[in-house]
Design a protein that fits this description.
Layout (H helix, E strand, L loop, with lengths): L3 E7 L14 E3 L1 E4 L2 E4 L9 E12 L2 E11 L6 E7 L3 E8 L2 E3 L2 E3 L1 H15 L11 E7 L5 E11 L1 E3 L2 E6 L12 E9 L4 E5 L6 E6 L2 E9 L7 E7 L7 E5 L8 E5 L14 E8 L7 H15 L6 E7 L3 E3 L5
Parallel strand pairs: 1-22, 5-15, 22-23
Antiparallel strand pairs: 2-7, 3-4, 5-6, 6-12, 7-11, 8-9, 8-12, 10-11, 13-14, 14-19, 15-18, 16-19, 17-18, 20-21, 23-24
Length: 328
Amino acid sequence: MRAFKMLVFFTIQLAATAAFATGPVLFAGGTDGAELKPTKAEGPFGAAVGMVEIAVDVAEDEAMGRTTMRVRGTPEGAHTLIVPLGPGHLEARARVDGKAVEGDTRTGAKADALWAALAKVTGSGLPLAEVGHGALVVPTPALGKRAVIELDQRWKIDATDGMRRLVVPLPAPSLAASLSRLRVEVTLRAAEPLRAVFSPSHDIDVERPDLRTAIVRFDLSSPHGDDDLTLLYAVDRDDLGLRVLTHRADDADHGYFMVLGNPTGRAEGDIAAPKDVVMVVDTSGSMRGEKMEQARSAMEYVLDHLGPDDRFNIIAFGTAVRPFRDAL
């Protein structure tokens, strides 16, 4: 009897829409109740935020993150750091040049009024995406020509359909005077093996020091786009780590699915068990170009790594179903 059968689907999943990020915003001005009072006539962003570094450490279902903003060319006048407190928020603290700065936490109608005011003075609709979320408002002391603002946050991680979902708020380039570089590092740690770490929102590099640790990095010069970083991953002891993700828009008749497999690499003995591998590939017109090249490369990888006793077949489907062979 064959040890097990493996069914691999090659298709392209539409990533779920990433949440728009306001991230921390350094506003050139102060607050007066629900009103924002700019101190700079030519715009609401006084200080130029040159580099932003974000380091996040995840253990089980909590994340702790530090955002470091390196500010340069700060003009005279007051500044206010406005921080969204999204779903799962537990704690947030700010420091300027190493010194703690007290902030005002706003929730409910007060927070909604603040987001509306920020949208008005910036001319951007991004802050309106935060309506319903709280805000930390931090009046900063006089900033020198160069200053370092640090923001520490702690929040809970969502889990749905067997996948954990980590959302890391990123500063929006459209809500900053200048953002020359963005560097992010996320360290995931778990008691059980980590599976299928990927991002539907950004191109990332993933380093796996061991089965229970993953380090995610990306580094952008001249960042563009106003999306949060979203990471999806699974944690379990199953040797194959199989997951099926599905997505269908509310107004659509058809949806998409993705099968994720991330074996632990543990084997009993030195000889791998024989496998039956069936690869199913969509060859319809929607797969033209880069999508088909990705599917072809994936199939070539699987074929190159088959064992001497493994069997395989390829089933193509478009207007008709066409197997490579009648049997494995």
